[in-house]
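Here's what a typical entry looks like (F-box/kelch-repeat protein):
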Amino acid sequence: MQKNRWTVMNQMITARSFFASGAINGMIYVAGGNSTDLFELDSAEVMDPIKGSWHSIASMGANMASYDAAVLNGKLLVTEGWLWPFYVSPRGQVYDPRTNDWESMAVGLREGWTGSSVVVYDHLFVVSELERMKLKVYDSDTDSWETLEGPPLPEQICKPFAVNACDCRIYVVGRNLHVAVGNISRLSQKGTCSKKWRFFVQWQVVEAPESFSDLTPSSSQISYDCVDAPRLPNGETI
């Protein structure tokens, strides 16, 4: 592959949209999604970017399109998210590439996954779809979500969101392409036997030019190579 250009890779074995994806140990995994006939899929596959080839892996065991996905502790987490009218609890599946097996997601994890996720400090954080909600983090020991200390997402950042993370910072791009940068800090909790952390967040807003006022984000990535791209105060580009 050449730098500064797009390279067309081999097609997936099964055409799909709205699927889950994640990179684990340099391999790209995709799962579920909608077929060309708009039926939900349970198939999954993996691509080796060096060879450019796809091959099938174990099926999910549930036909579902992905609302969000994350890679945590070497596993691919896939959730379909809450759907109106909220009568049925959302489904979630977890894939372990070491065993090529899927298992059902823990109840607390899938029911509390109510927004776009990022992984920071080897913990899963969610920016809720409910505006003005505080950032929350998942505790695998108790299978529950905890609200971070600190202010909620700044009011300038409105849905739809595009969320990403780099090091200890979370980047939330909202309508009009305003960006909220959340700096995550952690402290160990005293008086506990296990290594349990308390997390804090402080937000900084980078307002976009007025000419971007009619734009909405679809995705976001953090890059260190774009010399001419707009830069945040810390020197990173979006």
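The longest strand covers residues 179-188.

More examples are in the samples folder.
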